[in-house]
Design brief:
Layout lengths: L5 E3 L2 E3 L6 E5 L6 E6 L3 H19 L3 H17 L1 H12 L3 H18 L2 H4 L4 E6 L2 E9 L2 E5 L7 H12 L3 E5 L6 H12 L7 E3 L4 H9 L3 E7 L2 H13 L3 E5 L4 E5 L5 H13 L9 E6 L2 H16 L19 H17 L2 E4 L18 E4 L6 H4 L6 E4 L5 H10 L2 E2 L1 E5 L3 H10 L4 E4 L15 E2 L2 E2 L6 H7 L1 E9 L19
Parallel strand pairs: 7-8, 7-10, 8-9, 10-11, 12-13, 12-18, 13-16, 15-16, 18-19
Antiparallel strand pairs: 1-2, 3-4, 5-6, 6-22, 11-21, 14-15, 17-20
């Protein structure tokens, strides 16, 4: 079995441990690689590599760092077909979706290309007699990112382009399920001109994560994944005095008001609920139609669309939805469907027995639709992370507002309506971090920041955009005075404007 590798000091480094994790082709179910899981000593060697590279990179002019990002952007565009195919094979996204997700990561690279402007400090002349005051933003040092399987390119690129452009050295610990694409990104960064050690990739499991968190040379950790692990990373990083941003799970609602364009709403639910087989932290997994007539029409329109969903191998251009990422995850999602039936929800469309002809060993299931789900059911409370949409019927606007507001997760939410007043009221009062108005997946553009509320996010700063620059830098404020002559006597009072 072919073995993958770590990427350290600009080159592929074989693993030294005797522990491996299998990597599969999600469409065929065939194991295609063995992934070495790093020992603590291997992780510490990677940290040492990044620490060695940091002083030189931190002192590189921001404009020179930006030129590396410009070249990296060009290489991403030139290699988009290869990159999206790597994503499709190991993750299971259809190729068009894979390319779209990489493009959203590329947009963060474009944002990072503007780093000379983004790092500009502030200056105030003569705040007191002969005294000037200015601030500067400086990099932290070695920083790490721990990323999930569902976006093996986009989520790493939420992190490392901004971190590296700010002058840090970055260690990426990608998911064990689809590591080939993150490794290829590191190779392209070297091709773009990044010095050795500026971007390292170490593959591993909890041992690698804990080593990164506990090592004093790692100054900050970014994480995206499930809420229990996000909370763990947040607490452990806080214990060791590290800066941390940890994004967790979600249960994203889409409110459908009686005046909504129903065709538009159904199209939105199909894409947002079943795109990427529902394996998105911003997937819509709960539809909330307001009023019985709205609910009846919505379910009646969704049922034939879901039944006709084209599920097939990820590289087939005709496929609208590919497989799930692993057999274990497939079993977990099917288990939630079983649970929903036991809880008394109405299973309108059952995709559990779907088999892709010629790909019977692939990790496939069809789309599922539940109706008459209530807020005390586990299928409503918990993140399923699969192609399962639950319809929770709301009698009025107030109940539709209450559901996402009181849910433990607060990542994303959407409202579909023609009523500007209703949309404005909903946006102002819903307790969720990202809101879409007639937009089902309200992921901000790269020059804004991504982040949810409540148990969807831990830490004070969000991913990419302005928060990304703030997270990967720290502010130094300088008060300076240059003497113009000899002046006798000590000053015991705090300098204030107008003081002599």
């Amino acid at each position: 079995m072919k073995q993958l590798y770590h990427f350290v000091d600009g080159r592929a480094v074989p693993g030294e441990s005797d522990r491996f994790s299998p990597v599969y082709n999600a469409s065929t179910g065939e194991q295609i690689f063995e992934l070495p899981l790093a020992t603590a000593d291997e992780v510490r060697a990677v940290i040492a590599s990044s620490a060695k590279a940091f002083p030189g990179w931190a002192n590189t002019a921001p404009s020179a760092r930006a030129r590396v990002m410009f070249r990296f952007k060009d290489l991403l565009e030139q290699n988009m077909d290869e990159l999206s195919e790597l994503c499709s094979i190991e993750h299971g996204k259809v190729k068009s979706d894979a390319a779209g997700s990489i493009t959203r990561g590329l947009e963060v690279v474009e944002f990072a290309c503007g780093i000379p402007q983004l790092l500009k400090g502030e200056f105030s002349a003569n705040v007191a007699a002969g005294i000037d005051l200015y601030s500067m933003r400086q990099p932290l040092g070695v920083v790490a990112g721990i990323t999930p399987f569902n976006f093996p390119a986009m989520v790493p690129m939420w992190m490392f382009p901004v971190a590296i452009a700010c002058g840090n050295c970055f260690i990426l610990k990608p998911s064990e399920k689809d590591p080939s694409l993150p490794l290829r990104l590191a190779e392209l960064m070297m091709e773009a001109g990044a010095p050795e050690g500026v971007l390292n990739v170490v593959n591993g499991d909890k041992l690698a994560v804990d080593t990164l968190i506990e090592d004093p040379n790692v100054k900050a950790v970014s994480f995206v994944g499930s809420t229990p692990i996000a909370n763990y990373v947040y607490e452990r990083c806080a214990h060791f005095g590290k800066r941390v941003q940890a994004m967790g799970g979600a249960k994203n609602h889409m409110i459908v008001m009686p005046d909504a364009d129903m065709e538009q709403a159904v199209d939105a639910l199909m894409g947002a609920g079943y795109g990427s087989a529902g394996e998105r932290c911003m997937a819509v997994s709960v539809a909330v139609p307001v009023g019985q007539d709205t609910a009846d029409e919505l379910v009646a329109r969704l049922k034939p669309r879901i039944e006709a969903l084209k599920v097939g191998p990820s590289l087939d251009p005709a496929s609208e939805m590919g497989p799930l990422v692993t057999a274990e995850h497939l079993a977990k999602v099917k288990g939630y469907v079983d649970l929903g039936v036991q809880e008394g929800a109405d299973l309108v469309v059952d995709g559990r027995d779907f088999r892709a002809q010629g790909y019977e060993n692939g990790f496939f299931m069809g789309g599922c639709l539940f109706d008459n789900v209530t807020d005390d059911m586990r299928i409503y409370k918990e993140e399923i992370f699969g192609p399962v949409l639950s319809v929770v019927r709301a009698p009025d606007f107030d109940e539709a507002l209450r559901l996402p507001t009181e849910h433990e997760f607060g990542n994303g939410v959407a409202i579909f309506t023609r009523d500007g007043d209703a949309a404005r009221d909903f946006t102002a009062n819903v307790e969720v971090g990202m809101v879409g108005i007639n937009v089902p997946i309200p992921v901000p553009m790269a020059f804004y920041s991504f982040g949810g509320w409540k148990n969807s996010a831990f830490g004070d700063m969000n991913q990419h955009g302005p928060d990304g620059v703030r997270f990967y830098t720290r502010t130094k404020t300088v008060t300076s005075r240059w003497p113009t002559g000899i002046r006798a006597g000590a000053e015991f009072a705090m300098p204030t404007p107008g003081s002599e």
